[in-house]
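Thread title: Can someone regenerate the structure for this chain?

I was given the following input by a collaborator and told the matching structure tokens would be attached. They weren't. Posting the sequence so someone can regenerate them.
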Amino acid sequence: MKTILTILAGATALASGPAMAQTAVVRDNPPGLFTSPRFTNVVEVPAGTRLVFVSGLTAQGPDGAAPKEPQAQADAVFGNLRTALAARGLTPADVIQVRAFLVDIATTLPAYRKAYGDFIGKAPPPASTAVGVAGLVRPDLLLEVELVAAKPGR
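Best answer:
Regenerated them for you:
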């Protein structure tokens, strides 16, 4: 399943001839791979694209406090990621890769999936990995999420 971005990139290349460089991020789920509406298997970033890397963020607020419940933590994590992206003029639609580290994955995964779904919304899903871990930097933190975002050069 190729997204609209892939179609637009192809149409632009056809309209402008072979000398025009690809300007859009291409998201693709090649035949033969398991697919899901939650992620894209392959994301290609063309030369000249601005990349932004966001460190793993947790549910900690500016004061260091974090909610206790999994859903409240997941919502806070994605709120923090949204703030980090906005600081660089980006939105969740610009995210091309997400990596999640989940403590007690059986309990935390449903909360993560809901918050992640709300965060991505109707945007094409990024490449994504979720991993169960024994613990994070603080024992009260249940998940940490890092991401990469891409925006065509200015």
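Residues 1-20 have pLDDT under 50 and may be disordered.
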